[in-house]
Automatic annotation (TrEMBL):
Belongs to the MICOS complex subunit Mic10 family. It is found in: Mitochondrion inner membrane. One of its GO terms (cellular component) is MICOS complex. Residues 77-97 are annotated as: Disordered. This is MICOS complex subunit Mic10-like protein (DUF543). It is a single-pass membrane protein. InterPro entries: Mic10. Its main location: mitochondrion. The keyword DNA-binding does not apply. Pfam families: DUF543. It comes from the Eukaryota.
Amino acid sequence: MADNKEIIPPQYDLNAKWDACLDLSVRRFVYSSLAGAFCGLLFFRSPATRWASVAFGAGVGIGSAYTDCSHLFNGSPAKLAPPKISESPTQNVQDPE
């Protein structure tokens, strides 16, 4: 029975996606909180502003992790349409005739 193991394609493997998402979220939360704490110690004297910089760093980390996890679960992000180029010549260009 252990030999009949089914192989799940990577795009449908939710366990792997959740593992990657949790790992990414925890890592970004911790690293950005530490960066906020370092910047708070470096730039601010008040404990309230130091904690605010830690909270801001944590928010940035959670936000970026959420964005990447949503792309991981929903597929690649929607691409913007390329700008349309008109085929008519511009008014500043004169014909050589």
